[in-house]
Amino acid sequence: MAKLKLDLHDIYNKGGQIDVELNRIVQEAVEKKIELVEIIPGKGSGALKKKVLRFLDQKHIRALYHRVEKDDKNFGRIFIHFRF
């Protein structure tokens, strides 16, 4: 199974760029019919992870994927599952 990965460590303090990258990775997954996207917001204070989850909870984004999984073994990782 193909997988895309987005590591947000380098842009954690650039709010606008984070949204651009999240949009890009979701659109790429849809266009290429990739079933799994791994997003790494990192552990930190949890603020970036909450931002990512709020982004994914937007109605127009939520319509594109099947489910979101928070990695129970690694707090700093989120998986987005797509169904094609």
Word description of this protein:
The protein has one domain (3-8, 17-81): Ribosomal Protein S8, Chain: A, domain 1, CATH 3.30.1370. A 4-stranded mixed β-sheet has the order 1-2-4-3, with helices on one face. The protein is 38% helix and 21% strand. The protein has 84 residues and is an alpha+beta fold. The model has no long low-confidence stretch (mean pLDDT 93). The radius of gyration is 12 Å and the shape is globular. It is built from 3 helices and 4 strands; from the N terminus they run βαβααββ.
Strand arrangement across the biggest beta sheet: 1-2-4-3
At the third CATH level, what is the topology name? Ribosomal Protein S8, Chain: A, domain 1
Please count the helical segments.
Answer: 3
**Tell me about the biggest sheet?**
4 strands, mixed
Write the layout of secondary structure elements.
Layout (H helix, E strand, L loop, with lengths): L2 E5 L7 H18 L3 E5 L6 H10 L2 H4 L4 E4 L7 E4 L3
Parallel strand pairs: 1-2
Antiparallel strand pairs: 2-4, 3-4
